[in-house]
Amino acid sequence: MKNLAKRAGLLTITLFLCASAWADLAQVPYYAQHLPSIQKESGEALKDALYGSIKGQTILSYKQARRHLFGEIYLEKVGNSYKVTDVYCEEDFTSSVGVGPGRIPNPNELNCEHSWPQSRFNGRQSRSAQKSDLHHLFPTKSVANSTRGNILFGEVDGDAVRDCVASKRGDDIYDNHDAFEPPKEHKGNVARALFYFSVRYKIAIPDEEEVHLRRWHELDPVDSDERSRHEKIYKIQGNRNPFIDDPDLADRITNF
Ligand SMILES: [Ca+2]
Known about the structure:
3-stranded antiparallel β-sheet, alpha+beta, 9 strands, binds calcium ion, 4-stranded mixed β-sheet
């Protein structure tokens, strides 16, 4: 009986923790002003409502953004030293390439990936806002960053990137265009980053990329690392990614 009561208590706590970890936007005060329209709308009108809630970020300089990215958000302390793990090759970079608090490492080794490539930015929106928006920036091994270039993301029938076993480049499995496939752990993160970018800067995700991103969003759900990175970005630039706060929102948008 005692055990049963204890188990029931644990179950209640677990359910409560799950519920709070997956709180919808109503539980996040940040969205309060736009909540009625976010809850009511879907499709294009929902995108507009979300845009209204996320458009007002503090615009950083690109240098500030990189200092935060490498020297804070992704920086991990290991004993007396520091490391940053890149998201494409899953390799660790240390002080030997300039990793440390507030530091920008050697860009020939580790550099800043614009998940939404700069060559495809929206020309009618602030270029510096798009370039330094931390929600779509990630640390990547430079050789993999160059290999990805500005091609679309997708599942590929192709080879591992040179000097990088975790990512692949090759023919998209559905329609043969050249595409880049990051490691499993990054797939959901990049999907949510691009959903955010599409809504924030009013720019369409190509259909042949969106089909993969929607699958990746399901296959690699939000975890504690992504949530913790998201909170750090919110503190720095003052806006949030609604698709991390409420992953179900993507289902209410038919076309990014
Ligand atoms: Ca992930």
